[in-house]
Specification:
Oligomer: heterodimer
Number of helices of chain A: 14
Number of helices of chain B: 13
Radius of gyration of chain B: 22 Å
Largest sheet of chain B: 4 strands, mixed
Structural class of chain A: alpha+beta
Helix content of chain A: 40-55%
Number of strands of chain B: 10
Order of helices and strands of chain A: HHHHHHEEEEEEEHHEEHHHHHH
Order of helices and strands of chain B: HHHHHHEEEEEEEEHHEEHHHHH
Strand content of chain B: 15-25%
Distance between the termini of chain A: 22 Å
Shape of chain B: globular
Chain lengths: 386, 394
C-alpha cells in the first residue's frame, strides 16, 4: 500500500480544527444537538457542507480540499466534544475513504465530488457476526449472473443505513471478499431500523438478490480491508479524546462549583485524587491520539498507532466517563445533561470497527511475531527523521 | 519527533557506548546484580573523560549543554546498552542547586568534584517525624561564632554509607510564619565529628538506606547555600528534577522485554506463559500504557525545549511511571513462580556466586524495592495533592 500525501500541512489542519471548534461552540450547543436527536430540530448537514468539512479528505481533482482521511483526526476532537449528530463518520470518514481507497477511477470521479458537495450520503455494511471478527466471517454472498451482481445475506446494525443514499456492502465472492455499491432503495433490500445509544440510527439489512455494483476490482482479503481502515480508527480515537477532554473539564468545573457539606466538592481529597487519575488517563490518551493525526510515515506505523489509540480509549476515555458520571451524582445519570450522552457516544465508539481487546490482540500479536507489533511501533515511531 | 541532528547524536552516543562501556559492567546490569560503589564511580569517571558525566548541566559549569531531547536519547541509549545508572544526588540534584543558587566559592569548590565524582552526595531531607510533610522537619542549625551547630536526625538517606557529603535541610527559624519559611539548605561533610550513619535494611533484604544522626555537628557558615531561611525554594527545584527522573520509562521497557523472554521459558499450567491469552493481554496492556507514558514524556520534553512550563504532566510521569514499573515487576514475579523466591546470592554468601546466576534471579528484589518508587521523591499521594491544587484549585 502506498501513502497519499496530503495537500494540507499540520498548521493548516490545526487552523481548520480551531474553526470547527469555534463553529460548534457558537452554533451547535448541547440543546440544539438534543433537539436534532429527538427529531425536534433541524440538523446541520447543510451548514457543515457549506463550511467545507465533507470536502476536507477529498482530492482537489474531485472537488475536495486535497486532504486525506488521516487528516480528519485533527477535527475529530471538537466534533466529539460537540456530539455531532450527523452521518459524518459513515459518509465522510468511512464511506468516502473506502471509495477513494478501493474504487475505480470512474467510480471515484462519479461519487467523490458528490460527497465533497454534501449531496451523497454513504453507509458501510461490514461485519456480521455478533461480537467482532474483523472481516473474516462474511456470509453475505455476491453472485455474478447474466444481469450483473446480486447480493444475498444479512447485515446487522448498519450505522446510518436508513438515511444514506448508497450502501457499501462487503460480501464474499468466488475470488474472495469484495465491496459493493448498493442503492438504498434497491429491490430485494429490507431494513429494520433502530435508534442507537448515541442518538444515531442504524438498521438491520436483509438482502435477497439485491442488484449491486462492485467497488473497484474486488478480490480483497480481510487483512487488507482492515489495514485500510486505520485512518478511521484514528478518527474514532481522536473523537474519544475530544469527549474525554469535555468530560474532564465538566467534572473539574462541577467539583469547583457544587457545594455540599458547606464546601465545594473539590475540597475532598478523595475526589481530588480521582480527578488527578482522570487527568493522567486523559494525558496518556492525548499522547496516543496525537500520534495518529495526519498522514503517517508508513502504513504499518499508521495502523499500529491507530490501533493503540483505539484500544487505549476503552481504558482511558470510558473510565474517565464512568468517573464523570459518579462525580456528577444524579446529574451524571440525567438524560438532560451531556455527561450521559458523552458516555453513550463512547460506548458506541468502543464497539465500532473492533473493540479494545480485539485491537490490542492484533497489535500485540505475540508471541507469533517475537517482539510484538507494539514495540515495533514505538521503535519506528520514535526514530522518525524530520 | 526526532530531527536529523538528534539521530546523528544518537549514533554518536551508541558508538561511544560500544567503545567505552566495560563489558563486565554491562553484564552485571544484564544479570541485575547489585552494583558496588566502585562500579558506579568507574563508569562515572569514564563519562567524565568524555565530558558527559552531568547530562543536565549547561556548558558553563562543565556539562555538555544538551537539549532535553538529547538528554532523553542519552538516557535511553545508556539504559539499553546496560550502562550503570548515574548516581543522581550529585549530578541531578545538588549540582543544579549549587550552580543555580550557590556562591561563586561553592561553585568553584563543589561542581568540579561532582563532575569527577570525588564527592558522593546524599540527601538529608526526611526525618522520623517529617515524611510526606517534609516542611515540618526539626533538625536544627544555630549560627554560633561563624559556624552552624546542627542537631537532629535524618532518615531513609539513600547511600549515606557511600557518601562523603550530604546536602541537608535544617530549621534555622522556629518562629517563621510558615514552616517552609524557616528552613535553610546546608552542605555537610559526612566526616565531621558528630555524624553517625546507621543502616536500615529495606524490604528487598538489601542495604540501600540509612539513618543519619547529627549531634552538635559544626558546619562552616560558608556551607549555607543561598540565603538563610530560603532553603525550601531550593529544595523544590531539586524535587522537581528528582520527579522527572523517577518515571524510569526506559528501565520499565527493558523490564518488560525481560518479562517477555522469561514468559517463553516459564510454564503457566499446561503451556508456556507466553502462550497464555490472559497473560498476553496483561503484557499488552502494560506495553500500551508504557507507550502512552513514553509519548507523554516526549511531549513534556518538547514543551521544555520550547521554553514552556510542562505543567502537571511532569508529576503525571512520576505517578504513572512508578505504578507501571511496579506492575511490570509484579507480573514478572508471578510468571517466575517459585524461581522468583531466592534472594540475590551476595546477601547470603558474598559476591562469588553472583556472576553465575541467570537474568531471571533477583526479580523479587527489583519488585520489592520498586515499591519505594511511589513513596520517595514526594509520595504519589502528595503529588496528587499538588496536581489537584493546580487543576481543581479549591
Amino acid at each position: 500500500m502506498t501513502i497519499t500525501n496530503s495537500m494540507l500541512d499540520h498548521a493548516d489542519l490545526e487552523a481548520i480544527a480551531q474553526n470547527v471548534a469555534d463553529w460548534t461552540h457558537r452554533h451547535y450547543d448541547f440543546a440544539r444537538r438534543q433537539a436534532v436527536v429527538r427529531g425536534n430540530g433541524a440538523g446541520c448537514w447543510a451548514e457543515i457542507v457549506g463550511l467545507g468539512w465533507p470536502a476536507l479528505p477529498i482530492a482537489e481533482r474531485y472537488g475536495g480540499l486535497g486532504g486525506t482521511t488521516w487528516d480528519l483526526a485533527f477535527i475529530a476532537p471538537p466534533l466529539g466534544r460537540a456530539l455531532l449528530a450527523e452521518p459524518f463518520f459513515s459518509t465522510v470518514v468511512l464511506g468516502a475513504h473506502l471509495v477513494d481507497r478501493f474504487g475505480s477511477d470512474d467510480q471515484k470521479a462519479r461519487l467523490l465530488p458528490q460527497v465533497a458537495a454534501g449531496k451523497l450520503k454513504l453507509a458501510f455494511a461490514g461485519s456480521e457476526a455478533p461480537g467482532w471478527a474483523g472481516f473474516t466471517d462474511i456470509a453475505c454472498r455476491a453472485e455474478v449472473g447474466p444481469d450483473g451482481i446480486r447480493l444475498t445475506g444479512q447485515k446487522p446494525v448498519v450505522h446510518d443505513a436508513d438515511t444514506c443514499d448508497l450502501l457499501i456492502v462487503i460480501a464474499t465472492e468466488a475470488t474472495g471478499l469484495a465491496l459493493h455499491l448498493v442503492d438504498r432503495r434497491a429491490q430485494g433490500l429490507a431494513m429494520t431500523s433502530a435508534r442507537l445509544l448515541d442518538g444515531s440510527n442504524a438498521a438491520d439489512l436483509r438482502l435477497v438478490a439485491v442488484p449491486a455494483e462492485r467497488l473497484g476490482d474486488g478480490a480483497l482479503d480481510p487483512a487488507t480491508l482492515e489495514a485500510a481502515l486505520a485512518p478511521c480508527l484514528a478518527y474514532l480515537g481522536n473523537e474519544a479524546l475530544g469527549i474525554a477532554d469535555a468530560l474532564f473539564t465538566l467534572t473539574v468545573e462541577h467539583l469547583r462549583t457544587r457545594r455540599q457539606f458547606g464546601r465545594p466538592l473539590g475540597a475532598n481529597q478523595a475526589l481530588q485524587h480521582r480527578t488527578v487519575d482522570m487527568l493522567i488517563q486523559l494525558e496518556c490518551l492525548r499522547s496516543l491520539a496525537l500520534e495518529c493525526r495526519g498522514v503517517p510515515v508508513t502504513p504499518q506505523i499508521g495502523l499500529a498507532a491507530a490501533r493503540a489509540c483505539k484500544a487505549h480509549l476503552a481504558r482511558s476515555a470510558l473510565w474517565i466517563a464512568r468517573q464523570a458520571v459518579q462525580l456528577h451524582g444524579g446529574m451524571g445519570v440525567s438524560d438532560d445533561m451531556p455527561i450521559g450522552h458523552y458516555f453513550r457516544r463512547l460506548l458506541t465508539i468502543d464497539a465500532t470497527l473492533g473493540n479494545a481487546r480485539y485491537h490490542l490482540r492484533r497489535l500485540s500479536a505475540w508471541p507469533e511475531d517475537g517482539r510484538g507489533a507494539l514495540s515495533t511501533f514505538v521503535q519506528e515511531a520514535t526514530s522518525v527523521v524530520a | 519527533m526526532f530531527t536529523k541532528a538528534d539521530t546523528e547524536f544518537r549514533n554518536m552516543v551508541q558508538s561511544f557506548l560500544a567503545r567505552e562501556l566495560p563489558a563486565d559492567l554491562a553484564e552485571k546490569t544484564r544479570r541485575q546484580v547489585h552494583l558496588e560503589r566502585e562500579d558506579i564511580v568507574r563508569w562515572h569517571r569514564i563519562l567524565h573523560q568524555k565530558g558527559w558525566s552531568a547530562p543536565l548541566w549547561p556548558r558553563e559549569f562543565g556539562g555538555p549543554g544538551w537539549t532535553t531531547t538529547e538528554r532523553f536519547i542519552f538516557d535511553q541509549e545508556c539504559a539499553e546498552a546496560g550502562a550503570p545508572a548515574l548516581e543522581p544526588n550529585g549530578t541531578k540534584m545538588v549540582g543544579p542547586v549549587i550552580y543555580t543558587f550557590g556562591s561563586d566559592a561553592q561553585k568553584k569548590r563543589y561542581l568540579p568534584r561532582i563532575l569527577s565524582m570525588q564527592d558522593w552526595w546524599c540527601q538529608g531531607f526526611s526525618e522520623p517525624d517529617a515524611g510526606s510533610d517534609l516542611a515540618s522537619l526539626k533538625t536544627s542549625a544555630e549560627l554560633r561564632n561563624g559556624k552552624f551547630i546542627v542537631n537532629g536526625q535524618k532518615t531513609w538517606t539513600t547511600q549515606a554509607h557511600f557518601a562523603n557529603m550530604m546536602y541537608c535541610l535544617v530549621r534555622t527559624d522556629r518562629e517563621a510564619p510558615k514552616p517552609q519559611a524557616g528552613i535553610s539548605f546546608l552542605l555537610i561533610d559526612m566526616a565531621s565529628p558528630g555524624v553517625t550513619v546507621r543502616p536500615i535494611m529495606t524490604i528487598d533484604g538489601a542495604h540501600n538506606v540509612n539513618e543519619v544522626f547529627l549531634e552538635n555537628v559544626e558546619v562552616p557558615a560558608e556551607n549555607l547555600v543561598g540565603e538563610l531561611n530560603k532553603g525550601w525554594t531550593y529544595a523544590k527545584l531539586l524535587l522537581n528534577l528528582e520527579r522527572t527522573s523517577i518515571a524510569q520509562i526506559t528501565k520499565s521497557k527493558i523490564a518488560l522485554a525481560r518479562l517477555r523472554s522469561m514468559a517463553e521459558t516459564c510454564r503457566a499450567g499446561t503451556g508456556m506463559a507466553a502462550m497464555d491469552a490472559g497473560f498476553g493481554d496483561r503484557v499488552a496492556w502494560l506495553e500500551l500504557d508504557l507507550i502512552a507514558l513514553e509519548k507523554t514524556n516526549l511531549r513534556v520534553l518538547a514543551a521544555e525545549n520550547a521554553g514552556r512550563d510542562p505543567g502537571p504532566e511532569a508529576s503525571v510521569l512520576k505517578i504513572r511511571g512508578s505504578e507501571l514499573q511496579q506492575d511490570i515487576l509484579e507480573l514478572t514475579c508471578e510468571v517466575l513462580g517459585p524461581r522468583a523466591l531466592p534472594l540475590e546470592p551476595h546477601h547470603a554468601s558474598g559476591n562469588a556466586a553472583a556472576s553465575a546466576r541467570d537474568a531471571t534471579a533477583a526479580s523479587n528484589e527489583r519488585y520489592l524495592y520498586s515499591l519505594a518508587t511511589s513513596i520517595y521523591g514526594g509520595s504519589n499521594e502528595v503529588l496528587r495533592n499538588l496536581i489537584a491544587k493546580s487543576v481543581v484549585g479549591v
